[in-house]
């Protein structure tokens, strides 16, 4: 089963990030490590611990943390997501993990899901310390996703809300916020993974604007030679199955695709066993000790 401990570390700009460190059972030694992050508006207690616990049972140290401005991590403004800042924070998390005495710095993998699945693709493409990467239902194109969700006919008014928010903040009216989602599929998923009701359906308006700058699919061909596993649901209407499959085709070897049945959240509930098993097997294959 392993053990779990609270942990805090600093990003390069001094922002303190908080999360959990999972240790495998057994004698003290340098183990492979997985850095794990969550999706948009989510915290690590919303399903990530299940994946982390399974990995710890297979002998991995797992560092899971809340993104800055969310949950137990510091940062302002609260409830704001900047994808490029999150990418740099993940790189700082890899640096921090590499300093831990129980971690083999040459065997650090990266796991991301949904929004952070896209961030994981970007980090794996630019940071060669990542020995292998798993992206579960990753966001591939923020702009294409927004266009698909709001519709071309509504796009102009959608963009206008961002311009208005920027003007309000420039006037000194403070961070502008909005409801994150009205999608019933998402609301229902939180009922499954957040029985204590810690999730808040709130996000800064400009987080949605910055999402349209977020194009992880432009990086996917650069992930190689880092081994890439993508876990894709066949009816993902949130991060869009077709965009994920197109991105997988653009990725270079070594790569592997696991298809699961269901919508965007299937990997965390009904198809959890399949997604977790694929995750464990991929990391076990690519983070195994080097031959002596």
Chart the SSEs and their pairings:
Elements: E1 3-10, E2 16-23, E3 31-37, H1 48-57, E4 61-65, H2 83-99, E5 103-113, H3 115-126, E6 130-136, H4 142-150, H5 155-170, E7 177-178, H6 184-193, E8 203-204, H7 205-211, E9 228-233, H8 241-250, E10 255-260, H9 272-286
Helix pairs in contact: 1-9, 2-3, 5-7
Can you describe what's shown?
The protein starts with a strand and ends in a 6-residue tail after the last helix. α3 links the parallel β5 and β6 (130-136). By secondary structure, the chain is an alpha/beta fold. The strands form 2 sheets. An 8-stranded mixed beta sheet has the order 1-2-4-3-5-6-9-10, with helices on both faces. A two-stranded antiparallel ribbon has the order 7-8. It is globular and about 55 Å long. It has helices at residues 48-57, 83-99, 115-126, 142-150, 155-170, 184-193, 205-211, 241-250, 272-286, and strands at residues 3-10, 16-23, 31-37, 61-65, 103-113, 130-136, 177-178, 203-204, 228-233, 255-260. α1 (48-57) crosses α9. 36% of the residues lie in helices and 21% in strands. It has one domain (3-145, 212-286): Alpha/Beta hydrolase fold, catalytic domain (Rossmann fold). It contains 9 helices and 10 strands.
Task: Summarize this structure briefly.
With 292 residues, this protein is α/β, with parallel strands linked by helices. The chain has helices at residues 48-57, 83-99, 115-126, 142-150, 155-170, 184-193, 205-211, 241-250, 272-286; strands at 3-10, 16-23, 31-37, 61-65, 103-113, 130-136, 177-178, 203-204, 228-233, 255-260. It has 9 helices and 10 strands.
């Amino acid at each position: 089963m392993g053990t779990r401990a609270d942990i805090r570390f600093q990003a390069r700009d001094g922002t303190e990030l908080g999360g959990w460190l999972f240790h495998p059972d057994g004698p003290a030694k340098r183990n492979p490590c997985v850095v794990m992050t969550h999706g948009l508006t989510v915290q690590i207690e919303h399903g990530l611990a299940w994946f982390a616990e399974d990995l710890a049972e297979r002998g991995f140290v797992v560092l899971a943390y809340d993104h800055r401005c969310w949950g137990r991590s510091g940062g302002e403004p609260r409830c704001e997501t900047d994808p490029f800042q999150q990418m740099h924070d993940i790189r700082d998390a890899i640096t921090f993990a590499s300093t831990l005495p129980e971690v083999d710095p040459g065997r650090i993998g990266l796991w991301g899901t949904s929004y952070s699945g896209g961030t994981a693709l970007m980090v794996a493409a630019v940071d060669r310390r990542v020995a292998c990467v798993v992206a579960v239902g990753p966001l591939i194109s923020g702009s294409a996703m927004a266009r698909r969700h709001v519709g071309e006919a509504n796009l102009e008014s959608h963009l206008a809300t961002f311009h208005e928010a920027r003007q309000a903040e420039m006037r000194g009216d403070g961070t502008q916020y909005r409801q994150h989602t009205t999608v019933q599929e998402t609301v229902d998923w939180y009922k499954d993974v957040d029985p204590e009701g810690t999730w808040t359906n709130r996000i800064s308006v400009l987080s949605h604007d910055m999402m349209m700058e977020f194009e992880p699919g432009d990086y996917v061909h650069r992930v190689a030679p880092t081994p890439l596993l993508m876990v894709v649901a066949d009816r993902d209407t949130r991060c869009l199955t077709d965009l994920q499959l197109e991105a997988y085709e653009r990725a270079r070897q070594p790569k592997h695709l696991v298809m699961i049945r269901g919508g965007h959240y299937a990997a965390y509930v009904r198809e959890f066993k399949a997604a977790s098993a694929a995750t464990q097997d991929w990391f076990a294959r690519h983070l195994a000790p080097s031959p002596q």
